[in-house]
Amino acid sequence: MRRKDREITDRAEIISIIKKCDVCRLAMFDDKYPYIVPLNFGLNYDDDNIELYFHCAQEGKKLDLIAKNDNVGFEMDTSHKLVVSDSPCGCTMEYESIIGNGIIEIVNEEQKEKALDFIVTQYTEKSNVAYDEKYFKAVTVLKLTVNNITCKRLKK
Questions:
Q1: pLDDT in tens, 54-84
Q2: Is the pTM of this model over 0.85?
Q3: Domains, the chain, ordered by start
């Protein structure tokens, strides 16, 4: 990272920033250009691992690309605040951001409910939600096991 003065390395701070984010942008390989899609997500972590969970339909471009290459990148950001200056070149933006990469896979049926709970928990205080069987069967859940993660913050 070029700006070491903005780097966050404390794992607890990184997890705290992830919890504040409401969108994760997932980047996949697609022939000539990357394919990036913003998604709602869930978080699961322990001392050694970070996992991100996403839900999607049972078919589509995202799943087609993952089937070809399960290596993905991701980005999320939060805490945006414009810092205005008298000079346009003096303006800046406060932020906290996360980037990383990892391996993504489809969650099996036995793990699907727990994975969906991680997504619900990211946005609400609820846990152990009762899912409508019709929608539960129609959804695919993805798990991204994070290999590398970096975090950056600018606060004025």
A1: 999 999 999 999 999 999 999 999 998 988 8
A2: yes
A3: 4-154 (2.30.110.10)
